[in-house]
Amino acid sequence: MKLAVMGAGDVGRAVVDLADEYGHTVSAFADSTSAVVDPDGIDVDAALKHKDSVGRVGEGDPADALGAEYDALVEATPTTLGDAHPGFEHVRAALETDRHVVLANKGPVAERYDDLRALEADSAGSIRFEATVAGAIPALSTIDGIGAERVTAARGVLNGTANFILTRMATDGLDYEHVLAEAQDLGVAEADPTFDVEGTDAALKCAILANVIHGGGYSLADVDVEGITDVPPSALELAAEDGRTVRLIGEVTEDGARVGPRLVPENHTLAVSGTMNIVQLETEHAGRLNLSGRGAGGPETATAVLGDVNRLE
Amino acid sequence: MSEADDRAHTLRLELVDEPGELLRALSPIADNGGNLLSIFHERGSLTPRGHIPVEVDLECSPERFEHIVDALRDAGVTIIQADSERYGEALSVLLVGDLVDTDLSDTLAELEGCGSATVADFSLTTEKGTEGVSSARVRLAIEAGSTERALEQVRDVAAQKDLSVVEPLVGEL
């Protein structure tokens, strides 16, 4: 397949880098200010080097990528809330010209799921978005395999940054600010960690899970969200005295979706450590399934993206 | 010593494995006029929380039985079942905020306000270097089937007093 990759962050770059290994050709690659297009396949190494040296993937206009020859658009621009601009417009452009779309960008799927499905219904192309929930973990294809109507609930640890902070606070008795600074030094947390620690990122993933399980109707505003910034070390100590710990858990049930710090037994399946993620599914006929692994990172997320591309064929 | 309205009652308690615990649990029964009939102390078997289940049969009037249950709770003894009134698995929550200045004893009383939960255990820690902020772990014994109602009460009390709550996972207790 010929891929147009929108976005040159960790995920976009990893997709471009690994596409060849998966047997695909990158015919267009764009970041927010530039693009490089070649119907026979762009020079990936040159584009990545160009990005590193001058901050742009090429000299073309970003819009050129959308007009290029491709079979599937990979939407990997940064997640935006509300109207999910410009990711949503990229998806629209691809679907309106009957091309497939694979999203790593959570914005359009969490915030405008019903709009996406309506566009898909009028298109010969289809959309897939495994990478939007818990990175490399095949949560959505597992739900697809079981049948969404037979999944009664989903819960899990969906944000590695918040989980890293809670784990470090609990094991070493350190306060939030201290661990956050350490996480930023390690590159686990971003300079502005709001999205992760306030629970927004996990809530977007819950909105996506709720849309998949309940057939649409959810956006970020429908998820009850609480972050981890108010959890002091003393609360974690009290939890530990009782053999428990605190994790930021996202839950999707028949009652709706919510994200918040929850008390769980220390040895509980959901009490994963560090930056690990886990998704637990309650199913009608198959009991409980637990899927854990890396929930973020370029090659990890690109693995989910390219898996989706392969499923389109 | 038996009186006309005396009846047999059964109490199921959960005790910590420490010297003196059994006596501490039995004293409120005797002190409130309960006539002990039998004590089944299953020292060999532990509850999922690592405590020892104790079953006590006693005889007293229904009114005295209520006093006994109250006195046991005041003494901090975890009651799993009092006659047919069954308390399901205890539920733990963390409360964080200005617990002291928002009247701690009132908070604990309010937590029991829904009528189906009773505070079985309570620990408080004050946050070092953070004025006013403290954390508490509260274990509630809850009547079977009332977990959601009890959690709702915890949320309401916390919202009134501007405390944050770390809830357990319901269905994952």
SSE map:
The complex is a heterodimer of chains A (313) and B (173).
Chain A: E1 2-6, H1 10-18, E2 25-30, E3 35-37, H2 44-54, H3 62-67, E4 72-75, H4 87-96, E5 100-103, H5 106-111, H6 113-121, E6 127-128, H7 139-146, E7 151-157, H8 160-172, H9 176-186, H10 194-197, H11 200-214, E8 223-225, H12 233-241, E9 244-253, E10 256-265, E11 276-283, E12 287-294, H13 298-312
Parallel strand pairs in A: 1-2, 1-4, 4-5, 5-6, 8-10
Antiparallel strand pairs in A: 2-3, 7-9, 7-11, 9-10, 11-12
Chain B: E1 7-15, H1 21-31, E2 35-41, E3 52-60, H2 62-74, E4 78-82, E5 85-86, E6 91-97, H3 104-111, E7 117-126, E8 134-142, H4 147-160, E9 164-168
Antiparallel strand pairs in B: 1-3, 1-4, 2-3, 4-5, 6-8, 6-9, 7-8
Helix pairs in contact in B: 1-2
What does this structure look like?
Helix content of chain A is 40%, strand content 22%. With 313 residues, chain A is of the alpha/beta class. Chain A has two domains: 2-135 and 299-312, 3-Layer(aba) Sandwich (Rossmann fold), CATH 3.40.50.720; 145-294, 2-Layer Sandwich (Dihydrodipicolinate Reductase, domain 2). A six-stranded mixed sheet of chain A has the order 3-2-1-4-5-6, with helices on both faces. Chain A has a six-stranded mixed sheet with strand order 8-10-9-7-11-12. In chain A, α8 crosses α9. The longest helix of chain A is centred in the middle third of the chain and has 15 residues, at 200-214. Chain A is globular and about 60 Å long. Chain A starts with a strand and ends with a helix. In chain A, 55% of the residues are buried. Chain B has 173 residues and is an alpha+beta fold. Chain B folds into two domains: 7-86, Alpha-Beta Plaits, CATH 3.30.70.260; 91-166, Alpha-Beta Plaits (2-Layer Sandwich). Helices cover 27% and strands 36% of the residues of chain B. Chain B is built from four helices and nine strands; from the N terminus they run βαββαβββαββαβ. In chain B, strands 2-3-1-4-5 form a five-stranded antiparallel sheet, covered by helices on one side. In chain B, α1 (21-31) runs antiparallel to α2 (62-74). The radius of gyration of chain B is 17 Å and the shape is elongated. Chains A and B meet through α12, β9 and β10 of A and β6, β7, β8 and β9 of B.
